[in-house]
What we know:
This protein is an all-alpha fold. It contains eleven helices and no strands. The radius of gyration is 18 Å and the shape is globular.
Amino acid sequence: MSRPPQRKPSRLTPKTLAEGAVRLAEADPVLRKIHRKFGPPPLLRRPATYATFVHIILEQQVSVESAKATFDRVVGTCQSELSPRAIRDLGDQRLRELGFSRQKARYALALADACLAGDFDVDALTRLDDEAVRSQIVAQLGLGNWSADVFLMMALQRPDILPVGDLALVKGIQEIDQTEYESRQQIADRAESWRPLRSIATRMVWQWYVHQRGRDIF
């Protein structure tokens, strides 16, 4: 018996993001306040490529601005695209000269090796459901749930991702709600009513968070 065709995973678009923001604003008073002030949040696209994983690795536990500066230096150094082969050719010492920590250079090189060996196929992630994507990503050295969340939200544009390990989301929702949530589970419980649009709600919280700090959103 033939298997039924798999449904293609859904992706956010500017239209569905704007429509979803309206729905969330109607359902949640906190998000309504954000939406009235700022309108729909930006889509925040990144390419679904190895280079985006390098960018995500650089963003771990440092400011967005610092990570972007290092990422831009690496991109500028590569003769072509920032590919697994380009990173492998740069090697540990050159990556560290460009601003990678020893640990992050190790992660980027390990992921490059996995891609070159065919053990990790970035292109294939676009065809997998959210949990399968997460499973593939967290199996790689140095990539955990937060890294998977960022890739799912920004590169694959999946609509219902809640990055409970993201500092801007956690601090933002605590400040907006004027409540100290003591655990990630409490954040997840707070966001339960945002299903199936938690990626959009997260963008709305980010939108408020960065504005409070006088910054552009990522």
